[in-house]
């Protein structure tokens, strides 16, 4: 098979081309990246390195990362402390520089250095990418009440783009109207969940292409269709909603902002009573909900959740997980969910990617990773999860050490397709042994 390369053009100042650096792609990388040709790639990592320090003190936190995040999915990036998962999220949010490769979000490619981000790109990132951090209390200003904390982002948006608040409010309003309308029609016509999803996806697609097209589709074309079909209940609801929309358009930005903040808080299970209180008055779970609503108020396309439940009580973790799942559906979100807990992400993820010491090792659909995991590092993560019915004699379970691979110049791993878009980084011999349940252990 012909070798494939990632080419990076390095440019000096004043636009003078310095040199082109070529990096050979690990065998099977392109097949892994092309696993879902029918899906839209919202995020693309291509041969990404992230390094800290310089000279003898250089540390490569991420090494040759190639990965896609598809529009509308929840991809969980899983690994233990120091694996590079949070660094990956930070680089995607343009908070950390990368030394090689490319990171693309939608139509924009991030510069290698965060200091090179211009105002246009910064505005794009603010509008489309938001991050939720592990410790909610450190990311919430203790001296501002909840109304000010949650509204900070849209206040900045209004300063830069006059009418920004109204635009977001009306977007939420139209989506809620269409969702309720589909529910009415589904009940009257016995639609399946799949049919409902098709209608919703069509509206979201139109809205993304052109909000005026989405408006015409909802309040003109759809209304005419309802009149022709004589669906009086749905028609009356849509006509009433259109009248209410006109009333809302006439309100001031301040009133719309209040309603918008309230809606976002309600979407995470909070109500109006929290608005005048301060972050330190709340529990960890409530603080995280506030952080989620603050991130969502700008209606980003991509949400990066960095260990959002690890600091919470176990009893609260499942509640927050369910919130993420609901919000993904309601707001058509794409989520990179970063965690060390494989069992917890099982309930929220569409796909799981496993990373260790900056190297991506295994990636695939959630069911495949949980039931048919193959890489020894993934095995170690699975066996680290306590189980009542475990027959293991060791509390530690399998302990992974990278030295078991004994890779050399002539014995290099490749991305092996295990079927069902499940890929593992390994040699063919390793895959053969692992499928038999034979895993090496490293002894000094």
Summarize the structure.
This protein has helices at 29-33, 85-92, 119-128, 136-139, 146-160, 164-189, 193-209, 211-229, 232-249, 253-267, 284-296, 314-331, 342-345, 366-372, 376-383, 428-435, and strands at residues 5-11, 17-24, 41-52, 59-70, 74-78, 100-105, 108-109, 129-132, 302-306, 334-339, 351-356, 359-365, 414-417, 423-426. It has 444 residues and is α/β, with parallel strands linked by helices.
Write the layout of secondary structure elements.
Blueprint: E1 5-11, E2 17-24, H1 29-33, E3 41-52, E4 59-70, E5 74-78, H2 85-92, E6 100-105, E7 108-109, H3 119-128, E8 129-132, H4 136-139, H5 146-160, H6 164-189, H7 193-209, H8 211-229, H9 232-249, H10 253-267, H11 284-296, E9 302-306, H12 314-331, E10 334-339, H13 342-345, E11 351-356, E12 359-365, H14 366-372, H15 376-383, E13 414-417, E14 423-426, H16 428-435
Parallel strand pairs: 5-10, 5-11, 8-9, 9-10
Antiparallel strand pairs: 1-2, 3-4, 3-6, 6-7, 11-12, 12-14, 13-14
Helix pairs in contact: 5-11, 6-7, 6-9, 6-10, 7-8, 8-9, 10-11
